[in-house]
Design brief:
Blueprint lengths: L4 H9 E4 L6 E4 L3 E5 H14 L8 E5 L9 H17 L2 E3 L6 H8 L6 E4 L13 E4 L2 H8 L4 E4 L2 E8 L8 H12 L7 E6 L8 H9 L8 E3 L4 H9 L19 E6 L6 E3 L7 E3 H4 L6 E4 L7 H11 L9 E4 L4 H10 L1 H8 L2 E2 L19 E4 L15 E4 L2 H10 L27 E2 L4 H4 L23 E8 L6 H4 L13 H4 L11 H8 L2 E4 L12 H8 L2 E6 L4 H9 L3 E5 L13 E4 L2 H7 L3 E5 L4 E6 L4 H9 L2 H8 L1
Parallel strand pairs: 3-4, 3-6, 4-5, 6-7, 9-10, 9-12, 10-11, 15-16, 15-18, 16-17, 18-19, 21-22, 22-23, 23-24
Antiparallel strand pairs: 1-2, 2-8, 5-20, 13-14, 21-25, 24-27, 25-26, 26-27
Amino acid sequence: MGLTLTEKILKAHMVDGEFKKGSEIGIRIDQTLTQDATGTMAYLEFEAMGIPRVRTEKSVAYIDHNTLQSGFENADDHRFIGSVAKKHGIYFSRPGNGICHQVHLERFGIPGKTLIGSDSHTPTGGGLGMIAIGAGGLDVAVAMGGGAYYITCPKIVKVHLTGKLSPWVAAKDVILEVLKRLSVKGGVGKVIEYCGEGVKTLSVPERATITNMGAELGATTSIFPSDEVTLEFLKAQKREADWTPLSADSDAVYDEIVEIDLASVEPAAACPHSPDNVKPLSEIGNMKIDQVCIGSCTNSSLLDMLKVAYILKGKTVHPDVSLSIAPGSKQVLNMLAQNGALGILIDAGARILESACGPCIGMGQSPNSKGISLRTFNRNFEGRSGTKDGQIYLVSPEVAAISALTGVLTDPRTLGDMPKFELPKEFVINDNMVVPPASEEEAKSVEILRGPNIKPFPKTAPLLDKIECKCSLKVGDNITTDHIMPAGAKILPLRSNIPAISKFCFTVCDEQFPERAEKLGQSIIVGGANYGQGSSREHAALAPLHLGVKAVLVKSFARIHRSNLINAGILPLTFANENDYDKINEGDDLVIENLTESVKSGKDIILKNKTQNAEIVCKCDLTDRTKAIILAGGLLSYTKENI
């Protein structure tokens, strides 16, 4: 029986466990990346481990999230990350060099390698044939120290692509079709592997758009084969030596198969407020719009920008529409400037933003009240744009550009014949904004530069045998990390200061939660299905930790957030019977006893609700390793004990 591409790479990197679906495996990590919103904490954690130099093949620290410097906090974080990178053997991508996933795809990603990043859209690297996985900052810190990264051995879904996309239909429409079919929960515990003749019709940037938004499926990662198309991309980046041909065996066996004829895909939009709320444009109709934002790690490649420039050439943005465009990297921006496309965008009335995440994370460009905003981004969670009642639609660059001209949601197929858009045979290569680390000898004299906003990693403690406290909060299904720990220009600068950022924890759901939880001292949070979907931000676990949350009891968890809770030493519990969700209310008095023995033995945990005189059976499915982490009080304590 042949192997899937996913199995080939994972098995080649396995260092612990048995390759058996549903069991835990540890894999060797070749590369890591961080971005500045999660990076400061990741490097504080790395420092706390006491390892002088990273042990990966390549680790890169990017500055792309907190680039709005309205106070000293972000600038101090950037300075701190730069000094840590120099001292500990990490490459430093300076502000202005671009969005981590776009730059990593261009300059560092290698087919067949493993990559984890402290950003949930790290699977972008799957467009090159990497196993690239989003993770919490502490997991990345451990990997930088040479430790294995642990995942549940995944099921593998084959998405079999046939045919070719019709003119003006985009890769974004392909991943929206997958989301429509599988939902935001459909990829949990799975890797999405793209195969078939249709793969050859997609460029690397198009493949990366698809793997990027695989994060919205809840998937562990997504991957394309490494083929002649991959080779041409790497040649153009002057990195052909990094190419390896990689594909699944012809007789590989998959757990599920999804068939997509690319010719049948049509332009679509993910409607508010979920990436899987997908409808074809023909169903939505000519909806009046207020804003268009083009960019993000999903759709900011040179190919995307050239298509946008073609559509805008010689025209003017509709007077009722604000159009902003953020090229994904310095390389993209530079080439747009050199080939004249940048002038076309400016002439049309686009507002050119720096090469950074920007509006995608609520860092500027918030729409007007109840504004309808078309965005080429990957998430449209309620409030994420910075406007609570903003109506965010996720679309392709082609849809975004034509709609910016007409002032209404418009099908780009009305443009008529589409010219052939091709990537250049040679990209402009200039890595002068990537600072290499100091040599081991020079590193000894490098000073770590800390600003006053940078606070230490929160203190953790071994698992208590008894938890007796109140339910501090009860929430419903599909709670995102944006609900738990919001982003935006006001809050993101506090990412290196857990006590300060904790004051915003869950305020999207309940403005009184931080104060209430802190007063309680200890508490338990109760939630519904798919709790913690969204980004990799470990702050969604560290802020509750600081506020005294000891356990989170839900119907089901999203993968990365559950790992982050374990890493923080917070007990992740699920209802044995989901109907028991109705047996707990906010404010109820709860008791869990004999915890250490129950965790060690893997027995069901009994939660007693004293207020309602009810007993609730809870599951806490942990491996031997994650049991030890929980008992130690978190991954940092566990790593120190076992280093």
